[in-house]
Amino acid sequence: ISQRVAISALTKGNVKEVISLLVELLLDTNIFYRVRILCIQCLIQLLNKNYFDENSSNMIDCFYKLYGSKDFQNIVAPNDFNNFGFYFLQKETPKAIAGLRNQQQQTPKDVLNFLIDLINYNQNTFNDYSDDYYLASLVQAISYSLTMPLNYLSSNPT
Which of 21, 38, 86, 95 could covalently link to 141 via disulfide, CB atoms 3.0 to 4.6 Å apart? Predict the structure, then answer.
């Protein structure tokens, strides 16, 4: 609980520094996955309140740093759900990124393309676990990008 309170308190600091810190926390694999999910939700809220041109590309890059192929940049690695913390974060990250809005309160095209690419390039052949729930979360993310109210992230229980 204290980590959640601390992350919420961070949102009151210098925006660029807080964004940088939250990205660092998101990418840190030693942090509990629920705290990392909270980080990405806070990030999306901050980015929507303080629009910067590179918001969506930075968040998409974070996803690829966590789940991208080591050989090809901007291609998602085949699914490996052996680490459940990574799995839950991988499910929640696209839904959070779908909440990004530009200055016109629309979903940026690169976010929509990213979400569609996640479905197109999903590879579960050698994974021991089914990807049904992961694919369902990707479809949910696409629906959020088209219909989600902007206050979703502040009211979404994780």
Answer: 95
